[in-house]
Amino acid sequence: MKHDTIIVGGGFAGLAAATYLGRARRRVLVLDTGRPRNRFSVASHGFLGQDGRGPMDILGDARNQLGSYPTVEIAHDEAVAAQRLDAGFKVDLANGKRISAPTLILAFGLQDTLPEIPGLSDRWGNSVLHCPYCHGFEFSDRQLGVLYRTEMSIHQAQLITEWGPTTLFLNGHTLAKEHLDALNQRHVRIEADIVAALNGSGTDLSSIALDGGREVAIEALYIAPQSSLSSPLANQLGANITETVMGPVIDTDDTKMTSVPGLFAAGDIARAPHSVSWAVGDGVTAGTAVHRALVFG
User: Fold this and answer.
1) What is the pLDDT of residues 26-36, one digit of tens each?
2) Are 109 and 267 in contact, with CB atoms under 8 Å apart?
3) How far apart are the C-alpha atoms of 83 and 159, rounded to whole Å?
């Protein structure tokens, strides 16, 4: 099968792009490792018509529906290397195969690095959270916490107060007076001590244990994790990447094309902030832009 485009990543952005290209009757190969960023969450919220469903269930339905389009193929393979050619792109797979196409969409997502605090990673996506718009409503009016990582955590703590009483755990960091004043205006409580552990039954959170033995009752802890690209392909292909306090973002234009002609990027790797809805929208943008590039050159 000769492919018009290869999509690296079978998450929300990648499958959305594949859907629109399939409807345009273009020959598409989606490379999917089955490890989307939000696989740790029991439910995804805020995605129109799918509110509260498991992200893996939504993706499963999307893959099944793509079966209606005979020109779309999904392969459980990992792309490990890529190279720009005169006529497009060459992609090497972990199984030793080499494939090529005139266009390429990167939608492989981000990888989160969490602080090494006992009990934190076990609750990631359930009671340790990133996005209040995705998971805040379910914890309305409960005791909420924010774990300080960068100055962005100050903004995050101010925002979280919209959902409930909020404590900012500095975890040994210090704040300037203007930051303390801003937090005080939003009635954010400050805990300066080092966080020793997270406690609770299963993936639930009931309290934050601090050095010295004191515990603070908390039912959800928000953190902006350090993120990294989950694949080396963008670097290998020479795409421009902007480093931010949250992690790298692949630079794209309004059509989601990168600095490399014919190379597109969609989803969390090519935007901030992140959500399922934005990933799907960006995937649609990339898919339709690729189709136009194939038609008009």
Assistant:
1) 999 999 998 88
2) yes
3) 43
Name the nearest CA neighbour of 215 among 205, 204, 223, 224. 205
Report in angstroms the alpha-carbon separations of 63 from 14, 26, 42, 60, 74.
11, 17, 19, 5, 8
Which residue's entry shows tokens 């210090």?
174
**Does the model's pTM come out above 0.90?**
yes
Tell me the helices (H) and strands (E) count for the chain, helix number first.
7, 20
Residues 48 and 101 in one domain: yes
Residue with tokens 């602080």: 115
Single-letter amino acid code for the residue at 212: G
CA distance 286 to 105: 7
Residue 201 domain boundaries? 115-222
Boundary-marking domain end, from 194, 222, 250: 222
Out of 222, 240, 269, pick the residue that ends a domain: 222
